[in-house]
TrEMBL record:
Protein name listed in UniProt: Trimethylguanosine synthase
One Gene Ontology term of the molecular function aspect: RNA cap trimethylguanosine synthase activity
Top-level lineage group: Eukaryota
Biased composition (Low complexity): 37-46
Functional note: Catalyzes the 2 serial methylation steps for the conversion of the 7-monomethylguanosine (m(7)G) caps of snRNAs and snoRNAs to a 2,2,7-trimethylguanosine (m(2,2,7)G) cap structure. The enzyme is specific for guanine, and N7 methylation must precede N2 methylation. Hypermethylation of the m7G cap of U snRNAs leads to their concentration in nuclear foci, their colocalization with coilin and the formation of canonical Cajal bodies (CBs). Plays a role in transcriptional regulation.
Quaternary organization: May form homooligomers. Interacts with CREBBP/CBP, EED/WAIT1, EP300/P300, NCOA6/PRIP, PPARBP/PBP and SMN.
This protein's UniProt keywords: Cytoplasm, Methyltransferase, Nucleus, Phosphoprotein, S-adenosyl-L-methionine, Transcription, Transcription regulation, Transferase
Length: 282
């Protein structure tokens, strides 16, 4: 993986470092800072909170979750075959009963990448705002005291809970079924991880992926709404996003750091780090 620092005024490569060394060193520094802000507001667990009540409802698998299929080599649809071959890259213990709906197959973060991001985001309380089938939340549960994993789709929450159980980390994750934007006023955390809906694999067809106009949600609004919780934001975005757009979100000439993620020498995605998560100073 490669890392670069982008400022709002100029796009400039300041450093290219080996990611495998760096996060550990700087994560320890940052952890010290982030741990001083143990500011999780339990109001989101309060009696009057409708979203929270919903999340505590016992979820059972019923016929209406027809999208929830345990795929095997025999029933995997043709269009998912290329993901099936890589199933152990997605979850190394796929065979122990991992559940993913069709969307989950192409949107889950591969485990090696999720592990790196989790190391970098080490803190007390982290929010995974669009948790999907739980690939990131599971790894956050290994580096953070508490994970708040949110998704608007009940099937995803079912998969994520099941998958967290397989990894033995479900007790560190609070799952909330709800709309992240509506939950924001009630949430407190040290770090927020954003992996919004890119719109499926079709994002690859765009020369430049515009976060503001090409997703079902406005990616710039998402950043600004999230700063109401914290400035420590990790934003997982398509490889064809212009990093300058990510820097521009911050305003006032502030910077963000963008990592380019490669797997098997293929450029897969980018992660922008804001606030104290940056390892490179302004
Ligand atoms: P992609 O388009 O990259 O395949 P997805 O459609 O899988 O991404 O979206 C990522 C996740 O975000 C999905 O699990 C989806 O249910 C969830 N999601 C979408 N909108 C919201 C929202 N407003 N609040 C919380 N989760 C959401």
């Amino acid at each position: 993986m490669k890392r670069k620092n982008y400022s709002q005024k100029e796009t400039q490569e300041t450093q290219v470092l080996d990611l495998l060394d760096l996060p550990e060193k700087c994560a320890q520094d940052k952890k010290r800072r982030l741990l001083t802000e143990n500011n999780f507001d339990n109001s989101n667990e309060g009696e009057n909170n409708e979203e929270s009540k919903k999340s505590k409802k016992k979820i059972t698998i019923t016929d209406k979750h027809e999208r929830l299929i345990r795929y095997t080599s025999k029933n995997i649809p043709k269009m998912l075959k290329k993901y099936w071959i890589k199933r152990f890259d997605l979850f190394h213990n796929y065979d122990e009963g991992i559940l993913m709906d069709e969307e989950g197959w192409y949107s889950v973060t591969p485990e090696a990448i999720a592990t790196q991001i989790a190391e970098r985001c080490r803190c007390d309380v982290i929010i995974d705002a669009f948790c999907g089938v739980g690939g990131n939340a599971i790894q956050f549960a290994k580096t953070c005291q508490k994970v708040i994993a949110i998704d608007i789709d009940e099937t995803k929450i079912i998969c994520a809970k099941n998958n967290a159980q397989i990894y033995g980390v479900e007790d560190r994750i609070e799952f909330i079924l709800g709309d992240y934007f509506k939950l924001i006023p009630k949430l407190k955390a040290d770090v927020v991880f954003l992996s919004p809906p890119w719109g499926g694999p079709s994002y690859r067809e765009q020369k430049v992926f515009n976060l503001k106009t090409m997703m079902s949600i406005d990616g710039e609004k998402l950043y600004h709404e999230t700063t109401k919780i914290t400035n420590n934001i990790s934003y997982y975005i398509p490889r064809n996003t212009n990093p300058q757009q990510l820097a521009n979100f911050t305003g006032n000439g502030k910077t963000c750091e963008v990592q380019q993620i490669y797997m098997d020498e293929i450029f897969k995605a980018q992660v922008a780090y804001y606030g104290d998560l940056k390892c490179i100073d302004e």
